[in-house]
Amino acid sequence: MKSPPSTHNGLYSSSYPTATIVTGWVGMGFELGFTIYYQLSGYPAQAVLINLIAVLLSVAGLILIKSFHKSRLAAHLIVLGVYAALVGPGVFTGGIDSSAIVWLIFVPFIAALTAGAEASFIWSVVTMLSLVGLFILNSVLRIDYTVRPSDSVERFIDLACAISAMAIAIWVNETIKKRMVYRLGVEISERTHSQAELRLRNQELEQLNTQLLSTKANLEASNSELERALVDIKQLSGMLPICSSCKKIRNDKGYWEAIEAYLRNHSEVQFSHGICPDCAERLYPDTRP
């Protein structure tokens, strides 16, 4: 049995808030860590300030989803914080050649993880436009805001953190998918069980309906017999006009008929003729023993 598409979509959409919360905490941790590192390593104040703004954006996103349940807006704020934490310092630490720019590949992925394919497409366009703009600014127009170019140690740190972030993102994605598949399996199992119970109830109702129809037929037959018996009883009830001389009975049509004929026509009584002792003595006196 297949679950309806609306169920799949609902379960899939319900995974976004969890992914957004996890991404917000992880992103805020990375942003805060890099803020401290930038401050201690003598990075430009602009890079430190932009990273602090990124931290505040992640905090705002977490507040939105935790307190106001605004999952989509919170996801975009968190992605914006990640984007700002990458592009901002990158502009002042080498521009298009900065090791921080490598991190931009995570922006569309994080958007997909927290808000879906549509958000991923939007942030892919934003990221690509940023790269093109930075390339034109540094390589075509020869405008460079680099204050402190990245060295080999910083590139190593950026790449190591990028690999770690990718591993964490993949783990979060797999965990959420497994949870979603489990919930989907539970729902399908519950629906299958409910449908089995429903089929059983339908069978019981059909059997009960058959029994009721049979009982109804029996009651109708019994009712017909009772009605016929009642008619017979009614035919022999009430006052019967009888002749005081010949003992004939007047029927419903006004005709007089012998009592034997009347009873035979209005009941199941059958007569066998004989003669009583009094009539035998009166009619046949010579046959006395």
Number of domain modules: 2
Strand order of the largest sheet: 1-2
Unreliable runs, pLDDT <50, ≥5 residues? Answer: 1-12
Number of strands: 2
pLDDT averaged residue by residue: 82
State which percent range the strand residues make up. Answer: under 5%
How much is the radius of gyration in Å? 50 Å
How are helices and strands ordered from N to C? Answer: HHHHHHEEHH
Largest sheet: 2 strands, antiparallel
Describe this structure as you would to a colleague.
- With 289 residues, this protein is an all-alpha fold.
- The chain has two domains: 5-195, no CATH class; 249-287, no CATH class.
- The protein is 74% helix and 1% strand.
- It contains eight helices and two strands; from the N terminus they run ααααααββαα.
- It has helices at residues 5-40, 45-67, 71-92, 106-115, 117-140, 152-235, 259-266, 277-283; strands at 249-250, 256-257.
- A two-stranded antiparallel ribbon has the order 1-2.
- A hairpin with a 5-residue loop joins strand 1 and strand 2.
- The longest helix has 84 residues, at 152-235.
- The radius of gyration is 50 Å and the shape is rod-shaped.
- It starts with a helix and ends in a 6-residue tail after the last helix.
- Mean pLDDT is 82; it is low at 1-12.
